Amino acid sequence: xxxxxxxxxxxxxxxxxxxxxxxxxxxxxxxxxxxxxxxxxxxxxxxxxxxxxxxxxxxxxxxxxxxxxxxxxxxxxxxxxxxxxxxxxxxxxxxxxxxxxxxxxxxxxxxxxxxxxxxxxxxxxxxxxxxxxxxxxxxxxxxxxxxxxxxxxxxxxxxxxxxxxxxxxxxxxxxxxxxxxxxxxxxxxxxxxxxxxxxxxxxxxxxxxxxxxxxxxxxxxxxxxxxxxxxxxxxxxxxxxxxxxxxxxxxxxxxxxxxxxxxxxxxxxxxxxxxxxxxxxxxxxxxxxx
Length: 290
Description:
This protein has helices spanning 17-40, 50-62, 65-71, 77-96, 100-119, 121-126, 128-134, 142-166, 189-192, 194-212, 216-224, 226-248, 250-254, 256-286, and strands at residues 171-174, 177-180, 183-186. By secondary structure, the protein is mainly alpha-helical. Strand 1 and strand 2 (177-180) form a beta hairpin. Helix 2 (50-62) packs antiparallel against helix 7 and helix 10 (194-212) packs across helix 12. It starts with 16 loop residues before the first helix and ends with a helix.
């Protein structure tokens, strides 16, 4: 007697129409936003981390693809569509009036709506760090940079002045302007710490997540070191630029050597994170805190 158990129709693997609509809408929007970020933000020192964050963020999601497939339970279409329709006019506003921060933030929100619609809440919760990490793609608005860099510029200028004076060089300071011999140097946003703090934070969090995600207390402890290390590295950068200006002239400091000082600063900050991790990880492990 023939069995009828296999006569049931197999479930279709094709995506429902509303998910195709969301994916199509995302693909139409994401191209212009990527081009705008590459042209307006990634080409500047403040956005140098952008391509790295995008590539590594996608990689973090792809390495979880097997788990995501196991957790896959499509989310509520009403929530997904609601998020899409709410964020779409915000995206259009940001793009129309060239507010890149608003445009990118809305784009990432639309991306999250599509991801939720396809994979569901459990999957979103599982990959919370890659989702948070991709938030570093959002360019900080100018008013926020001005607000946060004011105190950092003052502190870096004050500390650099005292160190240069201790080294025996003729130096004076008015606000965030340093006077060394006949030269006048302004500590700008690039040297204040904000630009490097954003880049260093994103790269450091990626490093901490890969190596210490299983120990949230130690990961949080390392995260608290990012700000002081970034400020120290920027102080080293300012000192380098002052000494280059004093010995080689203003053209040397503002040319190739200025960019070199920025690279040295970033490498110094990264090595600082690695050094703190190497020195303190054995202590935390020995005490059973990891």
